[in-house]
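Question (not urgent): is this output format expected?
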Amino acid sequence: MAFFSKDKEIKKEIKEIKPQQQKKAEPIKATTDTTISKNITIEGNISGTDAITVEGILLGDITVNNVVIGKNGSVKGSITAQKVIINGKVDGAVTCNDLDIMHNGYVTNKIHANKIMVSGEILGDVLAESSINVTPTGKIKTDALMSKHVTVNGTIEGKISASELLAVGSNGFVNGEISVKNIRTDEGGRVIGSMAMYEAPQVQNKKEPEMLDATIEEE
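Got this back:
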């Protein structure tokens, strides 16, 4: 009887040593001030309500209130925040309220913000709801740039639409297909390409279906 009892104990222990199922990786939660240091690479999405500073490499999306991409920082993924400062490289869409692309900043992909300051470089489509200011070191190459107020002291190449004002400073250079309501060019500023008067997009009203009078004849 003791032999069989021992065998049951062994079987019980074997059942208890079952491998645990691996849990799916969850997004990293940003704390009050999350920092990805230089020479560190992280793969995964980061979300939270606070701030993050990236000095290393992040392969994933960011959704927080404030984002700073340092000089050595690199993000391959989208960024959604209130305020974004970029002095490194971002390969992905950026959506925010205030965007500051500093001297070493480089952004590829679509940008949608309220106000944009550009001292670095953008390669992609840009929508600035209120204004965009390109400083003397700023460069933009785009298929579509739209804003109410566009101030250029650097370089913009591509299709540009300014619904209120395009202001080209003495160091400014604009080359492309331009649609503006008003334009101001300081002495020394250069504008090359085609120019047309800005027209607000027309909102097409859906037509109500016409009511037809019909008579049904009974056989």
